[in-house]
């Protein structure tokens, strides 16, 4: 028997049982991007491609035990933090990730595409305390306007967010007509133009992009390359044209995985 090692990434995120977003999407993304995936659940949601019917946060003690028990044995080389949900759980995540020697990518999830709040109103201040402690924050355009505290172009918002939190920021322009993302690391602004793909099935795009970035960081890529490769992955799995569910459906996370066990 020849034993092998593989880079490890961990997701701390909400559970979307329909599998398009949240932790399940993160784990599929890790697998498809060549890293071993671990995951801790912050909130159990009940949702499908049309609606979110409930959100049930884990207790802070349970979340802490999930994360710390996994990482005391298997060390992640990168961590993606997604939907956290409540103020207490953000405090728990802050404490837990501060013990890790790994880059942290934070997707500051506030609201679902179907319009359901995924973060308690009193938790935003706590989320803002987490941002300076992570390596990259990946707001979409409305989240970026909120975090910047004003309106403006995506590139201006990226610079404002860096000035406020001193954290590298990727402002995702996917909600605008031109899907261009901007990465600002305090010294240079990088532009990532995206293809506009005629596919309404984009549930979980933000979750997937941030976990693909974490996977690439776990493999040792630098931040700019990690973002570029993650965008290429998301473009590939949207372009695959999976069609499931009555609403904005999931992407085909396994589109680039073809082998002995995937056909038939
Ligand atoms: N559900 C969970 C658990 C999530 O983490 C997220 C997003 O980040 C969503 C739902 C929202 O996904 P979308 O806005 O792509 O529908």
Q: What structural category arises from helix and sheet content?
A: alpha/beta
- How large is the radius of gyration? 17 Å
Count of DSSP strands: 9
Proportion of residues in helical segments: 25-40%
Bound molecules: pyridoxal-5'-phosphate
Could you characterize what this model shows?
With 264 residues, the protein is of the alpha/beta class. Helices cover 36% and strands 19% of the residues. The chain is built from eight helices and nine strands. Strands 3-2-1-4-5-6-7-8-9 form a nine-stranded mixed sheet, sandwiched between helices. The longest helix is centred in the last third of the chain and has 17 residues. The chain binds pyridoxal-5'-phosphate. Pyridoxal-5'-phosphate binds next to strand 1 and helix 7.
Which key terms come to mind for this protein?
9 strands; 36% helix; alpha/beta; single chain; 264 residues
Brief summary of the model shown:
This protein has 264 residues and is an alpha/beta fold. The chain has helices at residues 22-32, 60-73, 87-97, 124-130, 141-148, 154-165, 205-218, 223-239, and strands at 8-15, 36-47, 52-57, 78-81, 104-106, 136-137, 168-171, 180-184, 189-193. It is built from eight helices and nine strands.
Task: Summarize the SSE layout with pairings.
Elements: E1 8-15, H1 22-32, E2 36-47, E3 52-57, H2 60-73, E4 78-81, H3 87-97, E5 104-106, H4 124-130, E6 136-137, H5 141-148, H6 154-165, E7 168-171, E8 180-184, E9 189-193, H7 205-218, H8 223-239
Parallel strand pairs: 1-2, 1-4, 4-5, 5-6, 6-7
Antiparallel strand pairs: 2-3, 7-8, 8-9
Helix pairs in contact: 1-7, 2-3, 3-4, 5-6, 7-8
The structure holds pyridoxal-5'-phosphate.
């Amino acid at each position: 028997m020849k034993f092998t090692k593989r880079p490890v990434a961990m997701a701390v995120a909400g559970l979307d049982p329909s599998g398009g977003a949240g932790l399940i999407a993160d784990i599929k993304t890790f697998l498809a991007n060549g890293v071993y995936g671990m995951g801790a659940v912050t909130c159990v949601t009940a949702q499908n491609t049309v609606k979110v019917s409930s959100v049930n946060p884990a207790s802070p003690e349970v979340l802490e035990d999930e994360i710390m028990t996994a990482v005391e044995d298997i060390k992640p080389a990168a961590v993606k933090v997604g939907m956290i949900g409540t103020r207490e759980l953000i405090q728990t995540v802050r404490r837990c990730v501060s013990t890790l020697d790994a880059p942290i990518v934070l997707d500051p999830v506030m609201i679902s595409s179907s319009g359901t709040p995924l973060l308690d109103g009193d938790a935003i201040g706590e989320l803002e305390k987490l941002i300076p402690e992570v390596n990259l924050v990946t707001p979409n355009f409305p989240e970026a306007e909120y975090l910047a505290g004003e309106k403006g172009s995506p590139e201006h918002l990226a610079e404002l967010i860096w000035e406020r939190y001193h954290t590298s920021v990727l402002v995702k322009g996917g909600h605008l007509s031109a899907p261009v993302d901007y990465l600002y690391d305090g010294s240079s602004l990088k532009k990532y133009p995206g293809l506009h793909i005629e596919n309404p099935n984009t549930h979980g795009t933000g979750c997937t992009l941030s976990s693909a970035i974490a996977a690439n960081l776990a493999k040792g890529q630098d931040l700019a390359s990690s973002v570029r490769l993650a965008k290429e992955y998301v473009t590939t799995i949207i372009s695959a044209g999976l069609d499931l569910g009555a609403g904005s459906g999931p992407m085909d996370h396994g589109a680039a995985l073809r082998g002995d066990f995937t056909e038939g």
